[in-house]
Amino acid sequence: MFLTRIIFEWKLKKSKTILFSGKFTEEWLRHTNIKFLEKRKIAYIVSGALIILSIGSLAVRGLSYGIDFRGGRTYVVRLDQDVQVAEVQSALTGVFGEMPEVKTFGANNQIRITTTYKIEDDSQDVDDEVEELLMAGLKNANVLDDGVSLDEFTDTYQLSSQKVGPTISADIRKDSVIAISFALIIIFLYILVRFTNWQYGLGAVAAIAHDSLIVLGIFSLLYNVLPFSLEIDQAFIAAILTVLGYSINDTVVVFDRIREYLKLHPKRKRELNVDEAVNSTLRRTFSTSLSTFVVLLAIFMFGGATIRGFVFALLVGVVVGTYSSIFIATPIAYDFQKRLAKVTAKRKK
């Protein structure tokens, strides 16, 4: 904003014309006349179907919890050759006495191994023991030379390691639920105070709850299907909170414009004011969402494998959040305001 202001002031001093659009975008979404409220029942059906599908997947498939939420040890290992995940998993099961989780992580010669072997043992030597067993299992799978020592393995082949105990993982789960619940409550109170109308707050909270459920449902449906990790970890919680913030920002812009139109045209039908207000925000909403989506898509395509799941959550959240601010938050607020007006009218009679 600071740099933009300097550039604008410099251009104004030079009496230069400041343009905010080009020939191809000058009329883009400028004179739309979409009847959003007439189509709200279709949006309710679509969103309802997506939410039912998401809840069904969460109940049947569940989520792929990362080490942050279930505890264990995770190792990222880069080998000299491409590996077969099933063979490595079988060899490690033989040394650990339990089946670890083995996934390709980035290139085909790079794997991530997660195990709960002796996770509750806090003795000093257990970490070295687990690394020795890990190295032995990789040698049994014929993906690591027999002459490699433990020091060479940890320095050259083992890229990273992480340990989360069961007590810490339980605390992280609890704190994540508290963080999201606290965000929903604060958002409702903020909308209530800003617009002095609980229907707007209800619409906003319904929209972000809708966004969260659908993002969770997509992660539940597609884990072990897409070729990158969709684990639920602390980065995912950060993505969800970011999505909530992005969605509520869009919703507040729409609500502000609705309030402005209601003050400018108090004698017109509320439905007409709401539709015109939403239409007037489309240009800003889609410009912001599209530019954000393009940046995230570039990070998703060219960024590292470690952040791909996080960015994927943001990509889905931007799309769903843009949709919900128009087709969920606004219609729900309108319907409850309409219902309250009918109840008030009946009481006066």
UniProtKB/TrEMBL annotation:
It is a multi-pass membrane protein. Pfam families: Sec_GG (PF07549), SecD_SecF_C (PF02355). Residues 155-338 form the Protein export membrane protein SecD/SecF C-terminal domain. Its main location: membrane. The chain crosses the membrane at residues 42-60, 176-193, 200-223, 235-255, 286-304, 310-334. It comes from the Bacteria. It is found in: Cell membrane. GO terms for biological process: intracellular protein transmembrane transport; protein targeting; protein transport by the Sec complex. HAMAP family: SecF_B. Part of the Sec protein translocase complex. Interacts with the SecYEG preprotein conducting channel. SecDF uses the proton motive force (PMF) to complete protein translocation after the ATP-dependent function of SecA. This is Protein-export membrane protein SecF. The gene is secF.
